[in-house]
Design goal:
The structure holds two protein chains of two kinds.
Chain A lengths: L1 H29 L7 H19 L2 H25 L4 H20 L13 E2 L9 H5 L1 E2 L1 H19 L1 H11 L1 H6 L4 H27 L11 H11 L4 H23 L6 H19 L1 H6 L2 H7 L6
Antiparallel strand pairs in A: 1-2
Helix pairs in contact in A: 1-6, 1-9, 1-10, 1-11, 2-3, 2-4, 2-9, 2-10, 3-4, 3-9, 6-7, 7-9, 10-11, 11-12
Chain B lengths: L3 H9 L1 H9 L1 H5 L17 E5 L9 H15 L4 E5 L6 H12 L2 E6 L5 H10 L4 E5 L11 E5 L3 H14 L4 E6 L4 H17 L4 E6 L6 H13 L4 E5 L4 H9 L3 E6 L10 E7 L2 H12 L11 E3 L9 E3 L8 H15 L10 E2 L5 E3 L7 H4 L9 E2 L5
Parallel strand pairs in B: 1-2, 1-3, 3-4, 4-5, 5-11, 6-7, 6-8, 7-15, 8-9, 9-10
Antiparallel strand pairs in B: 10-12, 13-14
Helix pairs in contact in B: 4-11, 5-6, 7-8, 7-12, 9-10
């Protein structure tokens, strides 16, 4: 019992940074833009959040700075691919390496410094519920914020006019042009907003979960997030579930080891990725058919609309 | 990156070093005659240090830099040249050549992968001594070269005493990256130190398969703490996540690489940290005096409490460490420095209770550097 609760609780905590980033990537891809720079947005988000938290003593200002930094990096991506028609893959990867370099350079001063971080805050009443309490309601405020953001993003995407426009930019961009809307503006906005969420994900990693800044500390979580979006068929709630599932797969190894179960560590390391492959295999064509139509053009190297 | 390399491969080369080290002690004594005029490095005006990473990484390279600062203070007449972020390729040779142009006849190449470049430069400049930190020369050792490194499991044994005395749950937690021999020796020494004062103490191990992934470290620390572990330690390149996780949970901490007592004012016990000053000083003194050829440093030199100047030392104690524990640690350090002293003085049993090191046997530094099993009392499976 306690093993399951530990793994689920650990999955929610550890999966939240991935979830923020994947949610951002969902918005971006719904508008027709793949952002492989998500990992980079998480990195600049993690460092900015940590640095501002060290300088101001406020984790909330830190989180805000993380979102702004992640958004700015993605704005460059938006400019390159939307305005200049650059390759989405080349631009995203270049920005990742730019982010790696910049954060190594400017981050060195913050390695080993103590920052003001988000403390655990148990939600009154709810945290006392057996199983659900420890799994969902004994965490930090930045994690609770995601409980609000996920439904808001879902609602906005699927139930509001602006959401419809964003999705149309990803499905049938020409029809927007016909009706006098700016596809460029919509995509730029969606990509930037996505980067802000990725920045928040980085912030959760550096000032709420692991409470440290180190060079390249995101360690591929941004790429997992991009994969997760497909896994979750571009749906915010599925993104949430998928991120937690991935987090649990990561939390399973340490939880088993700490209980003295005899497992080969490298076998345990494979579980999260095995899980991803299994889900992709099961979903198969469903993911492809749910893909925003404009994304397929990206893969076919068609000229952007 | 930079910190992991030396630790990783010291282990991998341990088998090779076993052969070379066997010749170490005999080579040290009768070679006085070699010190004729024109000994390499003699009377050098400058000393060079090349580092693979930044000098302020709170780890391996910072320790090197701080060691070079000691040389600056100890030898005011010497010019100390340092170069950061020197890659492990021909750039290293070029950097060393530049230092030689500036008058350096002694160069410390401090990253594992600097060895090839170090040997190349040594060959081209017979009058210059190039010593390398952490790697092992497996061919004939030239008269103007050598390697050196320390023994980190000895201070980890002492830290284990502090942990074993402090724990109330008798469960100690160890977050590690990969099952390399150096890590295994650290974990085993830590557990044996704890057992020496607390026979019931267990060390529960959790691996992260990464030298620095703070997210995974947090998951590892959380899982250990939830199982009642009340002292956490680690073998990771970046250490603050695990230390803060322990402090937040009200558990105690044994540090690694750097004194992080400021991050854990309540729970800090002690830790194994670097101090290259005494060893660098002795090497510089040997070379400047013209005594390098045939000295212990003209070899694959491994240093521990027995030989003195171990670059790994115990960090300062936290407030909660009792005088009794401190006395036990002092006694143990004296034991390790004695002829028969070792964290692995037999009998040593593995996890299944089989005797691996027979009663009364003192394994050599080289044997310990090749360790491939967990001792009794360590919980966890060693991936082989």
């Amino acid at each position: 019992m306690s093993l399951i609760v530990d793994v689920m609780s650990g999955g929610v905590r550890g999966g939240t940074s991935i979830m923020y980033a994947a949610l951002g990537e969902t918005v971006s891809e719904r508008a027709g833009v793949i952002n492989l720079g998500t990992e980079g947005s998480m990195l600049v988000g993690a460092l900015s959040a940590y640095a501002i938290s060290v300088e101001t003593g406020s984790p909330w200002l830190g989180a805000l700075a993380g979102a702004v930094a992640g958004g700015l990096l993605s704005l460059i991506h938006a400019y390159l691919v939307v305005e200049r028609g650059a390759s989405q893959f080349a631009s995203g990867l270049s920005l990742l390496f730019l982010a790696l370099g910049l954060t190594s350079l400017f981050g060195a001063a913050y390695v080993g410094q103590a920052a003001a971080t988000f403390d655990q805050w148990d939600v009154p009443v709810l945290s006392a519920i057996p199983v659900l309490g420890p799994v969902l309601f004994q965490h930090d405020p930045l994690l609770y914020l995601s409980y609000l953001i996920v439904p808001v993003v879902w609602f906005t995407l699927f139930k509001t006019r602006i959401g419809l426009l964003v999705r149309t930019a990803g499905e049938r961009a020409d029809s927007l042009t016909v009706h006098g809307y700016s596809v460029k503006l919509l995509r730029t906005g969606a990509v930037t907003f996505g980067g802000m969420l990725a920045g928040l994900g980085g912030a959760h990693l550096s000032i709420a979960y692991a409470n440290a800044w180190f060079e390249n500390m995101v360690s591929g979580r941004g790429f997992i997030a991009v994969a997760l979006v497909i896994f979750a068929v571009w749906n915010p709630f599925r993104v949430m579930g998928g991120a937690y599932l991935f987090g649990m797969a990561i939390a399973l190894g340490p939880a088993l080891q700490a209980r003295g179960y005899q497992f080969n560590q490298f076998a345990l390391d494979v579980i999260p990725f095995l899980l991803t492959l299994v889900v992709l295999a099961v979903l198969g064509k469903r993911t492809l058919s749910s893909s925003p139509a404009e994304l397929k053009r990206v893969f076919e190297n068609a000229a952007p609309t | 990156m930079s910190i992991r390399k030396p630790t990783l491969r010291v282990g991998l080369c341990a088998a090779a070093s076993a052969l070379v080290l066997a010749g170490c002690s005999s080579a040290t004594e009768p070679e006085e005659a070699a010190e004729s005029a024109g000994s390499p490095g003699e009377g050098t005006a400058a000393v060079g240090f090349i580092m693979v990473g930044p000098k302020d990484d709170f780890g391996y390279n910072q320790a090197v830099y701080e060691g070079s600062e000691v040389i600056k203070a100890e030898f005011p007449d010497l010019e100390v040249l340092t170069a950061e972020n020197v890659p492990e390729d021909d750039t290293a040779a070029t950097t060393m050549e530049q230092m030689i142009d500036k008058g350096a006849k002694l160069i410390f190449a401090t990253s594992y992968g600097h060895l090839d470049a170090a040997l190349k430069v040594a060959e081209e400049h017979p009058d210059v001594v190039v010593v390398q930190q952490g790697n092992t020369i497996t061919t004939d050792i030239p008269e103007n070269s050598g390697t050196y490194f320390g023994t980190v499991y000895e201070p980890m044994y002492l830290a284990g005493i502090a942990a074993g005395a402090a724990t109330e749950s008798n469960k100690l937690g160890y977050v590690y990256a990969f099952p390399i021999p150096q890590t295994i020796a650290n974990i085993n020494a830590f557990e044996r130190g704890a057992q020496s004062v607390n026979p019931d103490a267990q060390t529960v191990t959790v691996s992260t398969s990464s030298w620095c992934d703070p997210g995974k470290q947090q998951a590892a620390a959380d899982s250990l703490l939830s199982q009642g572990v009340d002292v956490l330690t680690q073998h990771q390149d970046c250490t603050s996540t695990v230390i803060q996780a322990a402090e937040t949970a009200g558990a105690m901490t044994v540090g690694y690489h750097a004194d992080a007592s400021s991050l854990a004012p309540e729970g800090w016990l002690t830790g194994a940290v670097w101090d290259w000053g005494p060893l660098y000083t002795d090497i510089v003194r040997t070379v400047v005096g013209g005594d390098f050829v045939g000295s212990p440093y003209n070899d694959n030199f491994r240093v521990g409490y027995k030989t003195g100047t171990n670059p790994f030392v115990l960090a300062g104690y936290g407030a909660s460490v009792s005088d009794e524990t401190k006395a036990a640690i002092e006694e143990a350090q004296a034991f390790l420095a004695s002829e028969d002293g070792s964290p692995f003085l037999g009998p040593v049993r593995d996890q299944d209770g089989n005797v691996v090191i027979e009663e009364g046997v003192v394994p050599t530094y080289a044997e310990n550097d090749a360790m491939s099993f967990f001792v009794e009392g360590v919980v966890g499976k060693l991936a082989q």
